[in-house]
UniProtKB/TrEMBL annotation:
PANTHER family: CYTOCHROME P450 2G1-LIKE-RELATED, CYTOCHROME P450 508A4-RELATED. One of its GO terms (cellular component) is cytoplasm. Belongs to the cytochrome P450 family. Heme binds at C437. It is found in: Microsome membrane. One of its GO terms (biological process) is xenobiotic metabolic process. InterPro entries: Cyt_P450, Cyt_P450_CS, Cyt_P450_E_grp-I, Cyt_P450_sf, Cytochrome_P450_fam2. CDD domains: CYP2. Keywords: Endoplasmic reticulum, Heme, Iron, Membrane, Metal-binding, Microsome, Monooxygenase, Oxidoreductase. This is Cytochrome P450 2C23-like.
Length: 492
């Protein structure tokens, strides 16, 4: 009797398992094409850990602009080329508006904050953050003046080091970070502030570790975090230090908060928290405040400062382009006034160079992966809800159908036949659609004002022949980071 019952139960379990697998196979039957995955590792043998974006681009030669790849146990749809990315993120924006969850930040922040949240949490936090950033000057004259002040401090720092070769990494990160600090924390930090410098080093180290193949491997196989904790432990240690700093800043703000006079983003959020105390479904609570402030601090520091650092390296490699920027600055601005956003309208070549720097360095080649929010039909394929989606920005910024010479650094990509500035719709370094970078306007302003101020005051050059400068990234599994370098700064 026991044997019959056991066999009966086993038959039921096998039947249910079969039905589940059958249902699962039907669910994914009309997914886009892609290489056959191996058990456990999926298609990782076909993806170069150092430059995964290049491997994915190569796969599109065989499978087309919409492909399915398996990154370990994660099934992902990769969108390649301007048309596919634009169609998904703009024309079907709602369906592709989810954000994938990553084990590394998930363990540090628990899924809270603006950057990696979804659903109602993301909608509320994004709406509030965009509105608050505008209230504190983003895109307005007031933030322009803050950047101009910071640019003067940066110029003084470079001038102090004009007699010997210097690494510009932390000069640039201190200046850029102070802009977002002014908005979020209501203050700037002196360049010699030891804790400030220490925090920037933590950010730099975490970005470098997270952009390495081993750092990204943790996101593919999160169970490895506990078995092989080396890189993860370092990222976690650094992240904990940054979280503690943000927590202290919030604590200080609570003690001096005035509901009638918000000084910065933290104050505005705290006031909103007080207003929402009776709402049990509110997203305005401490965990989201801490995580969002950290999101803004990190994102507002690293990507723009890395773009400036990469840009100076490019201008040293191509001194004739740097010289043309110098000439335009001399003609339009001169040396008796600081650069302003009004000047940009008359500086087509400089504007084109800055845009081409952003395109060419391709700072986030894999984008921040998306997630489908619903079962989605796309170009004849069926993509289930909750599917990881990678809109490959590298394939857009280097799309042969959109750019005359995508593999070359060519400011002409942003100039018409009369030498006037022109935008290209495939210029998407900040991504596009509902998940486009919330700080795009601020970053554009910073890049123009910092670049033009530095080049108004200095010439940058390499100790050796410019031909020897390598523009290959030092790390690029997540962010593309330039190789560490030292340069000579000559006052003009």
């Amino acid at each position: 009797m026991e044997l019959i019952v056991t066999l009966f139960l086993a038959a039921i379990i096998l039947g249910l398992l079969y039905m589940f697998l059958l249902k699962d196979s039907f669910r994914y039957a009309k997914m886009p094409p892609g290489p056959t995955p191996l058990p456990v590792i999926g298609n990782l043998l076909q993806v170069n850990g150092k430059t995964p974006y290049k491997s994915l681009l190569k796969l599109s030669d065989t499978y087309g602009p919409v492909i399915t790849v398996h990154l370990g146990g994660h099934r992902a749809v990769v969108l390649l080329g301007y048309e596919a990315v634009q169609e998904a993120l703009v024309q079907q924006a709602d369906a592709f508006a989810g954000r994938a969850q990553f084990p590394l930040p998930l363990r540090l922040l628990g899924g809270f904050g603006l950057l990696l949240s979804n659903g109602e949490r993301w909608k509320q936090l994004r709406r509030f953050t965009l509105s608050t950033l505008r209230d504190f000057g983003m895109g307005k004259r007031s933030i322009e003046e803050w950047i101009q002040v910071e640019a003067r401090h940066l110029t003084e720092e470079f001038r102090k080091n004009a007699s010997s070769p210097c690494d510009p990494t932390f000069f640039l990160s201190r200046a850029v970070s102070n802009v977002i600090c002014s908005i979020v924390f209501g203050q700037r930090f002196e360049y010699q502030d030891k804790r400030f410098v220490f925090l920037l080093k933590l950010i730099n180290e975490n970005v470098r570790l997270g952009s390495s193949p081993s750092g990204q491997l943790y996101n593919v196989f999160p169970s490895m975090m506990d078995v092989l904790p080396g890189t993860f432990n370092m990222i976690k240690k650094n992240g904990t230090e940054l979280i503690e700093f943000v927590s202290e800043m919030i604590k200080d703000h609570k003690q001096t908060l005035s509901d009638d006079d918000p000084r910065d983003y933290i104050d505005a959020f705290l006031i909103k928290m007080n207003q929402e105390k009776g709402n049990c479904d509110t997203e305005f609570h401490y965990d989201n405040l801490r995580a969002t402030v950290l999101n803004l601090f990190l994102a507002g520091t690293e990507t723009t400062s890395t773009t400036l650092r990469y840009g100076l390296l490019i201008l040293m490699k191509y001194p004739h382009i740097q010289e043309r920027v110098h000439q335009e600055i001399d003609e339009v601005i001169g040396h008796d006034q600081p650069p302003s956003m009004e000047h940009r309208k008359k500086m087509a070549f400089t504007d084109a160079v800055i845009h081409e720097i952003q395109r060419f360095i391709d700072i986030v080649p894999m984008n921040l992966p998306h997630l489908t929010t619903q079962d989605t039909s796309f170009r004849g394929y069926s993509i289930p809800a909750g599917t990881l989606v990678i809109p490959l920005l590298h394939s857009v910024l280097f799309d042969k159908t959109q750019w005359e010479s995508p593999q070359s650094f060519n400011p002409g990509h942003f100039l018409d036949k009369n030498g006037c500035f022109k935008i290209n719709p495939a210029f998407l370094p900040f991504s596009t659609g509902k998940r486009a970078c919330a700080g795009e306007g601020l970053a554009r302003m910073e890049l123009f004002l910092f670049f033009s101020t530095l080049l108004q005051n200095f010439s940058f050059h390499f100790a050796e022949d410019p031909e020897t400068i390598s523009l290959l990234p030092d790390a690029s599994s997540f962010l593309k980071l330039p190789q560490v370098y030292k340069c000579f700064v000559s006052p003009r």
